[in-house]
Every structure is written in structure tokens, then in C-alpha cells.
Write a structure and sequence with these properties.
Elements: H1 27-43, H2 47-51, H3 58-66, H4 74-84, H5 88-101, H6 106-116, H7 128-146, H8 152-168, H9 170-175, H10 179-194, E1 197-198, E2 201-202, H11 206-210, H12 220-237, H13 242-253, H14 258-265, H15 269-287
Antiparallel strand pairs: 1-2
Helix pairs in contact: 1-5, 4-5, 5-8, 7-8, 8-10, 12-15, 13-15, 14-15
Length: 298
């Protein structure tokens, strides 16, 4: 199980507490750091224990696990992953992306991975149940990503990263009360980390506009009016709470059945219907406020 507070070690662990991930760490860097920190906290080991087997001082190991200092070389990260029992394949993919995000050159990345040349007994393929889940949800995960991310490559990268993060955290996913909910949370966090925001609210992509019926309108004036209404709708949708936004996006933009939305989000059908009902009520209240009767007596 994941610890109650992932920024703090379990009670009784000797030594200094490991601080939180630094704000400057990029989104993909955090994607592999979070599972590594969870594995560290769950292991019961101390930084002193690990520094005896990883060629790093405790202070530098602490920096690595907080995302501080220089971006770590793959040789160190892979060695630490072996000690903590993390699979190397998804970790290496995320490590490479985060290195480029941290402005490391491709040559540096290639030299790091080539020079490591470490053999490992970790499986090169994810667990069967992980693969089954990914195959079952991949296309619909891509649809969700397309509502927020501007192109297919970014959508595919977000879903691929989601599956790699899930592989790294698969034991936690299985131990959670709801594996589907766990997986959806990983997807949502991954997509939102890549989504442009204005005033803290996610922006919808051009793909989302394409899902409405603009293509069926041939009159320029009608198209302009529909586009303005769609922009207003998306601006209000961005104010919805997470569950309501996700349900409304899947039900309105992609016309998914309630049962499929329930399956994807790991929520009961009743919760999906309730989220849709409350979300639609909020949208109507903002977009079509009730008219006031100016002649009414107070």
C-alpha cells in the first residue's frame, strides 16, 4: 500500500526525513520519481543503507530522490531501481524523456545508457494483467487526451507515459481499493501536467472543437455562432471539479455510454450519472442563467 504521506518516511525510520520533490522538477521527471520514492518509503531502508550500495553520498542520494541538483545519470538510477525492485524498462523510457525535458542532449542520454550496460533479471515485459488493462483502455485514454492536448504525438506520449508509470506502480495499483480508479488518476495527472492552463484551469484542444457539430454547418454565420457557443461551453467546463469535468468530457465530447465511462473512471454508474447531472446543472446555470422579472414586486 502507498504510505499515507508520501513526502514523509514511515514512523521510526532513523536518519533525516526525506523532503518533498522540488518544484523545479519537470512533469516527466516527477513521473518516475514518485514511484521510486514510494518504493523507497515502502522498503524500510535508509539513505545510509542505500548509499552503501549505490556510489552516492547520502546527501546526493537525497538530492536524487527529491529531484534536486543535477539530473542523475542512468547508471545510478538503474542501480537504485534494482535495489528497490523497480522494473527497468518503463523507468528507462521515462528517465530518457525527463533527461530531454531537463535540456540534456540526446548524445548525453545515449552515452549514459550505453555506458551503463547493466544486466538485470527484471522482466522486459509488463505483467499480464497490466497489459490486459492497457489494451482494454488505450483507445479511450487517447480520446480523453485528445480533448486537451494539441496533437496526436503528445496524446500518444501521454498515454504511453501513463502505462509506464502504471507498470512502475503496478503493485500499488493492485493493492489499491480500485485498480481502474488508480489507473485513471495516473492518466488524468499525466494529461493535465501536459495541458496548457489559464488561471489554473485546463484548456481544451482544437480536437475538442472538432467533436462538436461544427462540420455539419455550411452557413458561415451559423458556424461563427456555434463556435462562440462552443468556446463559452469549454470555458465553463474548465471550472468543473475533476470528476464532473471528466464525465462531461467523455459523455458530451465523445458520446460514450455511461457504463463505459463508469468502467474507465473506476466509478459506479450511479456516481457517473450524479456527476453528469451536477455538471450539466452547473453549465446551464452559468450559460443560461434564469431571467429576472424586472417588473416583479420585491
Amino acid at each position: 500500500m502507498m504510505p499515507p504521506d508520501p513526502s514523509q518516511p514511515p514512523p521510526g525510520r532513523p536518519g533525516r526525513k526525506l523532503g518533498p520533490i522540488v518544484p523545479s522538477a519537470g512533469s516527466v521527471h516527477r513521473a518516475w520519481l514518485d514511484p521510486m520514492r514510494d518504493a523507497y518509503f515502502s522498503s524500510g531502508r535508509t539513505l545510509g543503507d542505500l548509499s552503501g550500495e549505490v556510489p552516492l553520498a547520502k546527501s546526493k542520494l537525497s538530492e536524487l530522490l527529491r529531484g534536486a541538483g543535477l539530473y542523475p545519470r542512468w547508471e545510478i538510477v538503474s542501480r537504485l531501481a534494482t535495489l528497490l525492485g523497480l522494473p527497468h524498462v518503463p523507468l528507462e523510457r521515462l528517465w530518457k524523456q525527463a533527461a530531454l525535458e531537463a535540456h540534456k542532449s540526446r548524445d548525453w542520454v545515449d552515452r549514459c545508457t550505453d555506458s551503463a550496460a547493466l544486466t538485470t533479471t527484471h522482466a522486459a515485459a509488463p505483467p499480464i494483467d497490466h497489459r490486459a488493462l492497457c489494451e482494454h483502455v488505450e483507445q479511450d485514454y487517447l480520446l480523453y487526451a485528445q480533448a486537451f492536448l494539441p496533437d496526436d504525438l503528445q496524446c500518444e506520449a501521454a498515454v504511453s507515459d501513463t502505462f509506464d508509470i502504471l507498470w512502475l506502480s503496478w503493485n500499488d495499483a493492485l493493492a489499491s481499493p480500485n485498480t481502474r480508479r488508480f489507473a485513471w488518476t495516473v492518466l488524468r495527472n499525466t494529461v493535465m501536467a501536459r495541458t496548457p492552463h489559464i488561471d489554473g484551469r485546463p484548456c481544451f484542444s482544437q480536437t475538442a472543437f472538432d467533436t462538436v457539430a461544427l462540420t455539419y454547418l455550411t452557413d458561415d454565420e451559423a458556424r461563427a455562432r456555434q463556435l462562440a457557443e462552443t468556446m463559452a461551453l469549454f470555458q465553463v467546463m474548465s471550472r468543473l471539479p475533476a470528476n464532473q469535468l471528466d464525465v462531461i468530457a467523455l459523455r458530451i465530447l465523445w458520446r460514450m455510454p455511461t457504463e463505459r465511462v463508469s468502467e474507465l473512471l473506476g466509478l459506479s454508474p450511479a456516481m457517473v450519472r450524479s456527476s453528469q447531472r451536477h455538471g450539466e446543472h452547473f453549465l446551464r446555470s452559468i450559460l443560461y442563467p434564469p431571467e429576472t422579472d424586472e417588473g416583479a414586486t420585491p
